[in-house]
Amino acid sequence: MRRLLMGLLMVSTVMVAGCATALAAEARQAPGVSISDPPPAAVAELLRKVDIPYEQFTLANGLRVIVHEDRKAPVVAVSVWYNVGSKDEAPGRTGFAHLFEHLMFNGSENAPGDYFEPLREVGATDFNGTTWFDRTNYFQTVPRPALERVLFLESDRMGHLLGAVNQETLTNQVGVVQNEKRQGDNQPFGLVEYAQLAALFPPGHPYRHATIGSMADLDAASLEDVASWFRAKYGPNNAVLVLAGDISAAEARPLVEKYFGDIPRGPENRPAEAPVPTLPRPVTEEMKDRVANTRLYRNWAVPGLLDPDSAALTVAAGVLGGLSSSRLDNELVRKDQTAVRVSAENQAFHRVGIFEVQVDVKSGVDATAVARRLDAIIAELRDKGPTADEVQRVVTTEVAGRIRGLEQVGGFGGKATALAEGALYANDPEFYRKQLLALGRVTPSDVQRVLQKWLARPVYALTVAPGERGPYEEAAAAGALLRAKSSQTQREAAAAKPAGNGANGAVRARRTPPAVGQIANLDFPAVERARLSNGIEVVYARRQTVPVIRLAAEFNAGVAADPRDGSGQQTLMLRLLPEGTTTRSSVQIAEEQERLGAQLQPVVTRDRSAIMLTALTPNLGRSLDLLADVIRNPAFAPAEVERLRAQQLALIAEELTQPSGLAQRALPPLIYGPDHPYGRPPSGVGNTAAIKAVTRDDLVRLHQSWIRPDTATFFAVGDVPLSTLVAELERRFGDWRAPASPMGRKSFAVEPPVARPRVVLVDRPQSPQSYIYAGQVLPVRGADDTLHLRAVNEVLGGNFLSRINMDLRETKGWSYGARSSVDLLEDRSSLLLIAPVQADKTGPAVQALLSHVRDLVAEKGVTPAELRQVVNANTRQLAGQFETSAAVLGALRSNALYKRPDDYWERVAERYRAMTAPQLDAAARAMIDPGKIVWIVVGDAARVRPQLEGLGLEVEAERVE
Length: 961
Description:
This protein is of the alpha+beta class. Helix content is 42%, strand content 18%. It contains 36 helices and 25 strands. The strands form five sheets. The protein has a six-stranded mixed sheet, sandwiched between helices. Strands 14-15-19-16-18-17 form a six-stranded mixed sheet, with helices on both faces. Strands 22-23-21-24-20-25 form a six-stranded mixed sheet, sandwiched between helices. Helix 1 (17-29) crosses helix 27 (722-733) and helix 29 (803-811) runs antiparallel to helix 30. The protein is globular, with a radius of gyration of 28 Å.
């Protein structure tokens, strides 16, 4: 751990109370160190902080390579973007781009087997692949010594894939993708996208069909289709490779030449042209779905991200429904209180975009009247335009988000993504910056102009109301049988092919993966501590990568602090804090956040309540002013209480329509007991009766009992010295005193009931999938040593390569993903099993999951290969795991909750390396009991119950409320 030398006002890592008090007193006497005096930073100043320097070169085969050097951590993000997406699919071949993304994770000619295995072995983090209308990408962040291994893997699947793809692999992945489709379709509003695309885009338009494709087209996929698609689309000249992190362009070039240089150029994929269509007349449709509230949609096809109007459309969406203080929020949610949630977004794709508005109508309110009001608000903004302040708040919010994203080199939204997206779509890696500059130039008249140009055209208006769904398009069982019938023939044909068939049939000698170099132990940021004069502890780690402070004002409360008959009240109380104080209204708080580029977010977990602040360093003081006001001076205005009450009742109703929500509400009272603090819905939203019954006075008393200095700790990660942060906190919280009322105390005295294994069936008609959710209470608490148990869980279901996922997904193809977790809590923790599966495989899936648990604790303990995978992954991934300040902040908080030392994460690698398989087997047998697992199945009871009755477990029906 780095030890930082601290300046005059800084404190040592271990500080006695007297020194801390002296520091706080000095801070109070030295207001000159405050950075809260300047006005909010101007957009132009913020834009100067957005910069991703890069170098680029192109190989002879056309592969474009972009390198960004960032030495903050010994990791490199490797991101490969292919210029192919679902808009390039021919009729009858929908879903192929996404299906191919799956196939490219199933091994290549010189790296057979699942790609997640070598990625886990080298300690990769943030690894995945995605497909969208315009592109397919694969990305991972790896330790610098593992970079060559990953370049080998990426180059092998780019140039040498087809020899590894056979009918068995194709059949399996078609099943996996179809279950991914079922999983999405099974959600409330899960069928809306299909209706939107069909209405907005005419037949033959490249954006008319969803990326996931149709069941029929997926059924029809053949090996010949796969080979043709690969050869036509996946050449190096259709790709961009970005390396971002602990590497220079000079270091990168010979490595890229070595692994990618001899891949032959393929045919050039020219993305399909896609004009922006205009509906000939307004289209109004209504859809029935198993939803809690009526939702109103307004959609227009608009230009894509390269069009000059795109920036102004983005600002327009922010003003209308993107900001917390948006027009729709202020009018429908706050003023009229006829809606519980609103949004507006300009979804800008490569060729076209979709401008979408959503309004969730409050239960019991006339949706037709809300629709008229919605259209009037849109028309007013279109006719009169926004104010200059609204435009500035949207732009500041967008720029602040990009600044926060600069900290991460890879993942879904890091610097590699920004560079790759610009290179692929705009032929300009700096396009991200030009987009922000364009946003900064947007004026109110620009917004008015684009609204009048694009939103004055005919609208697609969709209403989704509660009711029964129509018939569901299922996969044809015959399709799978047809594919399976030719499996042996296809395998024999594949075996007869010469090795090394590249993108255009070129042949290359087999090669072996390069070795992985020595990966250094984690150097976790030094943890510093101080106390304010009123005793509040400040736990801090300094990270100087971006001008951002992340702070958690945490209170020892959480869902477990709810009154016995008041489930959800802690969440309601905390959500009300940023909705009005004695000096600021809800709208004023929202607007101030937007001007500052700050985020205030109430968060309630089972064990803690917190207000999370993310602030730009130049605006730290003013952001802390807001934080202090909402924590110390909430108004609990009666109108706001009623508004937030209605929103939380809507959240409860939504949970009762979701497969996962129903399951997560059903299980806790069965395994913990209804009177245990953990026997409540883990989301924290509570139950309807308790939220309806709570009064304003109850909420005030909850605040006085739990949100107070004697239950508080400040955890923070940022780029300023600890002394500066302490001074700022002292000015705003140093004189905060606990009220005279008693401090709240949680009680875990209630023992969980004796486990009774059974299957509890929750009927959800018309479900194409069943959601399996099972658990047992474990004989461990969060502060216990659970490392061996957590390692065992990784073998069972804790990662992609785990036993249950590889079986249910990669072998059987019944699920898009199955997993398990150790739900580590302050008190008694639990083991959870989660598996959404196709409805006709529900019973066999439960049996398979139960068999895996029984095998693990009996004769099929942890194998040497499984142990090696767990050790390698968990020791090599640490640098990537803590690349961002958000991850470091999470570690500070979890270390405190589980009573771990500050250097816990620096020492964990040596503990993993010392693990043995017998130790893990002993932990599994001591903690996990298959005979104590309670199984929740949410699905269509008429289809599912007969499958469950043959399992040898009691089957009960339950209605969840």
